[in-house]
Design brief:
The complex is a heterodimer of chains A (about 290) and B (about 350). Chain A contains twelve helices and two strands; from the N terminus they run ααααββαααααααα. With about 290 residues, chain A is mainly alpha-helical. Chain A has a single domain, classed as ABC transporter involved in vitamin B12 uptake, BtuC (Orthogonal Bundle). In chain A, a hairpin with a 2-residue loop joins strand 1 and strand 2. The longest helix of chain A is centred in the N-terminal third of the chain and has 31 residues. The radius of gyration of chain A is 19 Å and the shape is globular. Chain B is built from 15 helices and four strands. In chain B, strands 1-4 form a two-stranded antiparallel ribbon. Chain B has a two-stranded antiparallel sheet with strand order 2-3. In chain B, helix 3 packs parallel to helix 8, helix 3 packs across helix 12 and helix 12 packs across helix 13. The chains are: A mainly alpha (about 290), B mainly alpha (about 350).
């Protein structure tokens, strides 16, 4: 039984890191109806930039600050050079545009920082210890705590601050928000900056785990089922679905995997997602779209 | 001057229904056919034929398949490369292991792929939009996993099946030119069928679904049936394209050739080429196949050996930049540019 709980808890901890990536998607979708395929690439860029700054022997805090700076530049240039001309186009076009952004970010990031895999260490100790027979890891716990703080911060920001309220208005109805004087593009830029910061946290977390390399962009593929299970536009949904997916895939890999040859983590989240969507087509917490002809 | 409808009387139903009603279009099409069928095999080198023209035809076919689904029926699929893999493996197993003749094997690859594709299209009955787009990614990962882990399919750990020597009625397809003809003929046949599908009842149903599915349902389009047919047809094309590219170009089915990035590239192709046009599938595929070569050549002027990482980065930047550029400047892709040119030609030499 202790083994079961160990697998479960480690799955949940990984799940929180999936939620971090899914959160970036959900934020942007909520604010601008854009499904941002470039989120994984943004994490990759953040990881690459952080390693780059650390290699230039910046202290950690400065390197993190500069990385966030890079993400802010990315956010503003995406919104003003790419999304601004595409305002009021169908969502499909915006989705496709983020494909372009994905290629651009990957290409530019890797031409600056090179394509070889790099180690990233930001000085969080990785010590394993046992509580009642369950093996845990300080590194995972640190990032789980960090994610919790980040989510709490985001909730506070969206509920209590003026900017957060403006963003919620924009996500409810673009035109109504414009007509009461909320600058749409500015609101989008702020959202992309926030998503960039979330991507930085995710990039650092995953980069420390897996090393910073091209495949870091692929964690987005783990976050996508998380996103649709929770509902594309739901922040609490992203968190809960992340936990479900993390626990589910870890349990499946350990308990079902040996019978079918292993490696089922790559697609198991999608199976969960298909199952959930069969019963709830807009995810667990997604906004149901009522359509009229 | 020469390009106009004037004086071109449609006095029979056949003329009214013609695919190319304007004579100049017709002549242009015939010229293209002569180029593809006669001129290119005569003058092109083996390198051009086997590593540029054959992949170009195969990707064009696959892009057209995706275009049916995304451009005509409005259902995005981000897992299309996996269906190419299904077609490739199925036809190789039919041909190599069971000794079924080549053409029925390729057809069988398409049919198996269509069956799998219809299965993965089932979520489309219940969900749509981005939820559907992401759940099509499931097909990519599940199919990849099945091919790698099911020993009967892949025959080994690396998921590679060698293509045996090809024969049609005892006639060996061993030179690049003969493989070229195989790819070309199947491609022309399927595109002709596809063109007639999309301009008939079914195609119009698809377009109605794309434009507004609720409204389409109300005017009597059978939403579920037509969505599933769109998935079946589209994955059939992908399967055939996958088996052709494996037989004629790769020489062995390897799951790495049908990676998720290939699925993304297919989406990029139909955006750059033009959503919902046949010409666009060709332009997009041609662009995608020629781009790395063009970059290599132009960088080759400055350095002796172009490092592969720089090449792939520049490729990514140009590809991404062009996707964005086309969406901003010409959302209907290169095919629309051609359309604009035709409109200009119609009025030439008068300004309006």
């Amino acid at each position: 039984m202790a083994f079961f709980f160990e697998v479960l808890i480690n799955g949940l901890l990984v799940g929180i890191m999936y939620s971090l990536v899914a959160l970036g998607f959900a934020l942007i979708y909520k604010a601008s109806d854009v499904f941002n395929m470039a989120q994984g690439a943004m994490s990759l860029l953040a990881g690459l930039a952080l390693v780059g700054f650390l290699e230039m022997s910046f202290p950690l805090w400065l390197a993190l600050l500069c990385t966030v700076g890079v993400m802010i530049i990315l956010a503003y240039s995406t919104v003003f050079f790419i999304l601004k001309p595409l305002v009021a186009r169908p969502p499909l076009m915006l989705f496709m545009a983020t494909f372009g952004v994905m290629y651009l970010v990957e290409g530019i990031g890797q031409s600056i920082y090179g394509t070889q895999a790099k180690g990233l260490s930001i000085g969080i100790p990785e010590i394993s210890f046992e509580i009642q027979g369950i093996l845990l890891n300080t590194f995972d716990l640190t990032f789980a705590g960090l994610a919790a703080v980040l989510v709490a911060g985001l909730v506070w920001f969206f509920q209590k601050t003026r900017t957060g309220r403006a963003l919620r208005a924009v996500s409810d109805d673009h035109e109504a928000a414009l007509s009461v004087g909320i600058p749409l593009l500015k609101a989008w830029a702020v959202t992309w900056v926030i998503a960039g910061i979330v991507a930085t946290v995710a990039g650092v977390a995953w980069g420390t785990r897996l090393g910073v390399q091209f495949s870091l962009g692929y964690i987005a593929f783990k976050a996508l089922p998380v996103l649709i299970i929770g509902g594309i536009d739901s922040i609490p949904g992203a968190i809960i679905a992340g936990l479900i997916v993390g626990a589910g895939e870890n349990l499946a890999e350990v308990f079902i995997g040996p019978y079918v040859g292993g490696g089922i983590q790559t697609f198991f989240p999608y199976l969960i997602a298909l199952l959930v969507l069969y019963f709830k087509p807009y995810g667990l917490f997604g906004k149901e779209i009522i359509e009229r002809v | 001057m020469f390009y106009r409808e004037c004086g071109n009387y449609k006095d029979t139903y056949a003329k009214d229904m013609a695919i190319f009603p304007i004579p100049l279009d017709r002549y242009g099409f015939i010229v293209m056919l002569i180029l593809a069928l006669i001129v290119i095999p005569l003058i092109a080198t083996d390198y051009w034929i086997s590593s540029i023209m054959i992949p170009f035809y195969c990707f064009a076919l696959s892009a057209f398949g995706l275009n049916i689904l995304a451009g005509y029926a409005g259902q995005i699929s981000i897992g299309h490369a996996a269906f190419m893999a299904v077609g490739a493996y199925a036809s190789l197993i039919l041909y190599g292991r069971y000794g079924i003749p080549l053409l029925p094997s390729i057809l069988g690859g398409g049919i198996v792929s269509a069956a799998v594709g219809t299965f993965f299209g089932l979520p489309a009955l219940r969900i749509k939009g981005f939820y559907l787009a992401i759940s099509t990614l499931a097909s990519q990962f599940i199919i990849q996993w099945v091919i790698v882990h099911w020993r009967w399919v892949s025959g080994g750990v690396f998921g590679t099946v060698e293509a045996p020597d090809m024969q049609i009625f005892g006639w060996a397809l061993d030179t690049p030119v003969r493989k070229y003809y195989l790819a070309l003929c199947i491609m022309i046949l399927l595109i002709t069928i596809g063109k007639n599908l999309v301009r008939g009842q079914l195609g119009r149903n698809w377009m109605a679904i794309r434009d507004m599915d609720y409204a389409a349902e109300i005017i009597g389009v059978n939403l579920y049936r037509d969505k599933l047919i769109a998935f079946a047809v589209s994955t059939f094309y992908a399967g055939i394209a996958g088996s052709l590219i494996t037989f004629c170009y790769y020489g062995a089915a390897n799951i790495e050739e049908f990676h998720v990035m290939v699925s993304f590239a297919l989406i990029g192709m139909i955006i750059i080429g033009g959503l919902g046009t046949i010409l666009g599938s060709f332009l997009g595929a041609g662009f995608f196949v020629l781009l790395p070569i063009a970059i290599n050549q132009s960088l080759g002027a400055f350095m002796d050996v172009v490092p592969s990482d720089i090449l792939s980065n520049i490729e990514a930047i140009i590809f991404g930049g062009l996707i964005v550029l086309f969406l901003i400047v010409e959302p209907y892709g290169m095919a629309r540019l051609w359309h604009t040119i035709k409109d200009k030609m119609r009025l030439w030499p008068f300004p309006y």
